[in-house]
Amino acid sequence: MLSQEVEPLMQAIGEAAAGLLFPSESDFPIEAYRFGEEEPSPAAVLRAQGLSPDTQVEEVAVASFFEGLVEGDDDGSARFRSLVDLLQRELADLRVYRVGKVDIDAFVLGRHPSGVWLGVTTKLVET
Description:
Blueprint: H1 3-17, E1 21-22, E2 28-29, E3 31-36, H2 42-49, E4 57-60, H3 62-65, H4 75-90, E5 92-99, E6 103-111, E7 117-125
Antiparallel strand pairs: 1-2, 3-7, 4-5, 5-6, 6-7
Helix pairs in contact: 1-4
């Protein structure tokens, strides 16, 4: 694995996400996340999280996941745009997985040129 190639991007993602909170019924931080070399799928995400195979997993488009957060002229919108732009520029095959029903773990993952899947994770609360 070419982890030394991944580290600068992980650091850049961490810096771009620092201080950003994903708005839901509770606002949680967005953090850099390394999934690994296995291609993410609903089953792979559940295995990685140690969750039951019958746990709900929803795949959504990156644009719809960040909808409403990247529009606008304020600093927060600009920071979300910057994070999304970084992910789209540096990672291929971006996908978003929402795991769970009320307390939701969200993963935005893409493939690094080294083959490692990484991106960001956060939590959402939707009742």
